[in-house]
Automatic annotation (TrEMBL):
Gene3D superfamilies: 3.30.1490.270, 3.40.50.11290. It comes from Tropicimonas omnivorans. Residues 64-441 form the Circularly permuted ATP-grasp type domain. This is Circularly permuted type 2 ATP-grasp protein. It holds the Pfam family CP_ATPgrasp_2.
Length: 465
């Protein structure tokens, strides 16, 4: 928010002027009202592995994170380039594997990857789109320096919080939006439905029918599943609501079974089809993969896209972007040590206290080590894990992440943040919502922003140019 001399950066100038005229007591009252709003609305998430208080409210901070139109324009160019490359990579590895033949990505990294789905080999999704919805996690380390922390190409979550955060801010501070021109995010559900409908299979007749497949009310992101279905005007279904009917996937209704064209699934690959994956799954639809391979339905995101989430694959993203676009990456990767490489492993073990170590298939802030904040016992425990299964981990330097202000008891205080913009992909366009979800580490000095690890969220403003 502030430059080195204490003056407000240009993006924050309007907000800073407004804040200086506000009373802290009023802002604290507004923060309390926001918490009450989220609680009444039921915006919660579940924490697995805990016996008490498993359902929690995600903390919301009322100070927005603000980006200028110029900053956002540069970011969108880099995000679009990266998403195009990911989609091309997924098509390639399930077809000719040209990138492997060219020696740019090791064959073992594909073949031995648990997220690689052999049943997708030779399958081309309707419209050629594998990643219909993508979340790209970004961190900032300088005025014009953004890094991609990870790619979420499987089932990225959090967009409902982006929308509810904006709705809450609009209700509490309408005068701010009158004075500061902020780009809207509220039409995301309609854009999502339009993008999904554009990916309907050839078998579609008339207006494409879209449904959201949820594992059910006990899933940590169930609120989001129901929110998106409701705001898209789509049906929210569970596996037992669907069946194979005359070569299509049909949904149970009060008038019998009706075919659906696009299934936005929030169920992991392994649980999607008990006939093709885990036979003990009650969450999916028996035979849906056979209908999908025959072109009878679009599954968003496509099965097998999880390999693009893999953090070992992430370490090759600069090569992947250049291979498929012919351009240097606009957005940088965080320098990454692959622990499967003996030399890299030796370096990581020697410098464990200075690095961040992550599981290649990890998410949610679980299974990671932040070296500078770890105890000696935690370091030694992780050292043993690395030595036992080095291929399960990558390591990265601890970045000097940027901070944005939160409203603390004493007023504004700096906290570390990341940003997850949401990207919609259809056959003829890539649509990036202006803003995204800013996640904030509410604990002073913490670098972990995940809600499951005590982080919160805030509204993200992209100013009109």
């Amino acid at each position: 928010m502030l430059a080195a001399d204490g003056s407000a950066r240009s993006a924050y100038a309007g907000y800073s002027h407004w804040y200086e005229a506000e009373e802290l007591a009023r802002l604290r009252k507004k923060a309390s009202e926001a918490e009450g709003f989220f609680r009444r609305t039921g915006i919660t998430f579940n924490v697995y592995g805990e016996t008490e208080a498993s359902e929690r409210l995600i903390p919301f901070d009322i100070v927005p994170r603000i980006l200028s139109g110029r900053e956002w324009s540069r970011l969108t160019k880099g995000i679009e380039q990266r998403v195009r490359a990911i989609n091309a990579f997924l098509h390639d590895i399930y077809h000719r594997q040209e990138i492997v033949r060219a020696g740019r990505v090791p064959q073992s990294l594909i073949e031995n990857n648990e997220a690689f789905e052999p049943k997708m080999i030779g399958v081309s999704p309707p419209g050629g789109v594998y990643t219909h919805i993508v979340g790209v996690d970004l961190v900032r380390t300088g005025p014009d320096e953004f890094y991609v922390l990870e790619d979420n190409a499987r089932t990225p979550s959090g967009v409902s919080y982006m929308l509810e955060n904006r709705e809450t801010m609009l209700q509490m501070f309408p005068e701010l939006f009158g004075a500061i021109k902020v780009q809207s995010v509220q039409d995301y559900p309609l854009r999502l439905r339009r993008s999904l409908a554009a990916c309907a299979p050839p078998a579609t007749s008339g207006k494409p029918r879209v449904a959201v497949l949820t594992p059910g009310i006990h899933n940590s992101a169930y609120y989001e599943h129901s929110f998106l279905a409701d705001h898209m005007g789509a049906e929210l279904v569970e596996g037992h609501d669907l069946r194979v009917d005359n070569g299509r996937i049909a949904m149970r209704t009060t008038r019998g079974y009706t075919p659906i064209d696009v299934l936005y699934r929030r169920v992991d690959d392994n649980f999607l089809d008990p006939l093709n994956f885990r036979p003990d799954s009650y969450l999916g639809v028996p035979g849906i993969m056979d209908i999908y391979r025959a072109g009878g339905i679009t599954i968003a995101n496509a099965p097998g896209t999880g390999i693009a989430d893999d953090k070992a694959i992430y370490s090759y993203m600069p090569e992947i972007v250049e291979f498929y676009t012919g351009e240097k990456p606009i957005l940088k990767n965080v320098p990454t040590h692959r622990c499967s490489d003996p030399e890299s492993l030796a370096y990581v073990l020697d410098n464990l206290s200075e690095l961040v170590v992550k599981e290649v298939h990890g998410s949610g802030g679980y299974g990671m080590l932040v070296g500078p904040a770890a105890s000696k016992e935690e370091l030694e425990t992780f050292r043993a894990k690395l030595q036992a299964k080095p291929g399960n981990y990558i390591a990265q330097p601890t970045l000097a992440l940027s901070t944005v202000p939160i409203l603390s008891e004493a007023g504004l205080a700096p906290r570390h943040v990341d940003l997850r913009p949401f990207v919609l992909v259809s056959p003829d366009r890539i649509d990036i919502t202006p803003g995204g979800l800013t996640r904030v580490a509410l604990k002073e000095g913490s670098l972990v922003v995940n809600s499951s690890q005590g982080g919160g969220t805030k509204d993200t403003w992209v100013l009109e140019e």
